[in-house]
Design brief:
The chain is of the alpha+beta class. The chain has a domain of 139 residues: Double Stranded RNA Binding Domain. It contains four helices and ten strands.
Length: 211
Amino acid sequence: MRRKLPFVAMILLPLLLAACGPTLVRTDVTRFHALAPAPASRTFTILPEPGQAGSLEFQRNADLVAAALTNQGWRAIPPTSSDADTVVTLRWGVGEPNTIVTQDPPPTFGTSFGHGHRGHWAGAGIGIPLGPYSWETRVVNYYPKWLEVRIADAAARRRGEQRLLFEGRAVAEGTRREITPVMPYLVEGLFTGFPGANGTTVRVDVPVPES
């Protein structure tokens, strides 16, 4: 005989299963572009902006973006060549932290489920500590890390004009200030579904490979 889960169980069970899932980097991705939904293969070169020339960090990030565009069917051209269809530039950084303040011990929440001769039952309760606890205030900073990528028409650039074909920005928050560990996930999030819907912001969850 098939048993139906109580209503509360139907709500909480997916949440419990999700807690056991893979680690994800959540990115908010905003894109503007003048490209077709499935843009034709183009050639590109990645050029440093002022202050980025000679930077090893720029070269690493440029390699990540180049790999992402190559996966989209685009073809990289050396920066010394003038034959590329497009010119790609990128910027990145860490914003001011968002501060979350909590106090311990926090309230506790519990649920229980069961069944008996009168049918199924579910219970839920919340407990607030009232004893002589030593309250501790915890402050956690969440740093927004961001990556911006622009793709411009190379022919217009050579004429001294700027004709942008794509502008994209990916943002992810975390408790670590360093951006280098999260950069591959920002790049993957930004180019997931490339070029995306014009003028929209979407949330992209990028799985972290198991070590």
